[in-house]
User: What shape does this take?
Amino acid sequence: MLNFYKQITAYFFVKLLLSFAVIFLAYHFMEVSIPLLPKEKSPYAWSLRAFSDQLLGGKSTVTFLGDSRSIYYRYQVNTAVKFPFAGARLTFEKLEDLSRYTAVSFTSQCDKYNVMTFHIHSFDAHITKDDDFYSYRFAEKDFTCEATKNQHIIDLKYLNVPVWWLKQNNIPVSDTHYRLDKTRALSFDNDHRGPLGIPLHTHIENLTLHYQDWRYIWLAIGLLTVTWLIFLIYWLKRYSRCLVSTVKMNIAENKPFIAYQQLSLEPHRDREKTELLRFMGLEFTNPEMSLEYTVKNLGLNRTKINNLLKEELGLTFTAYLNKLRLAEASKLISNRENRNISEIAFSVGFNNISYFNRLFKNEFGCTPKKFESISKDR
Assistant: This one.
């Protein structure tokens, strides 16, 4: 059984490592990224447009630079109105369903430290007009833009609908929902919180949408469940075969103890050994059989008895007595005697069933019940 346990331990850890690898791959593939920049890689058709406070009488300006690989523009926020702003808007050709996406990521770089805002503009059936872009409901999230490139990841499920927009459109301030399944545009806004009255540059790159494809996780769970079941069934069968083989081997090894009557007929170097072995072979089923009982009946001291048994069999008195009793019990169980396990245990000299079961399992590698089942199948 030791080799079996070594094998199953090795295979278990290999299987465990493979399972971790499958889980790692599943998590890797479940994270799906859809690029919007560069434009050529985007699955959604869009156009880049500037917006500013000029529609409100302001004088802020935006000029695009570079190409479709990024959003690069020069802007100047001027204080002609109370809340000036200028920025870039990525407008889809039609309403797009972005509801499966959980996050958007991008890198930003500005000439000077600046607080910018990311917006999602979505259709609102109650107030949106096709010819009025500012009638689209929008949700926002602030981020900082610095002279060095920084990456940002924005959770699309937790954006804020500004209170001023709700009030401007006579919408209750508690109505902060927004619909990703009818998205019209994404935008980046520079406003009065940044430097004013001077020309500056903003550079947005690697604009990417993210979602989690749980099919990979469910596939991994299904695959691991099936393979672990196969693994367990296979090794349970191997265990049963190995257990049967071990029991048979233990039975064979214990035949000298089963045939205990013959032990006393073997030639020994002195009479004391012969008398001791014969006495134990005849009395081992006696519940009163003990070292003290043997000392009293044979007139040998305790040390002498143990030394004789160790010299002859390599066992102590208690170990040899248990060997004899367990060997006889295994013979009775194997012969399918019409008695239960408890009766057999008492008949061979054991007074404690739990103790008998523990010794039996240590000796034969299985419980008496399992031993009985194996014996019936032989």
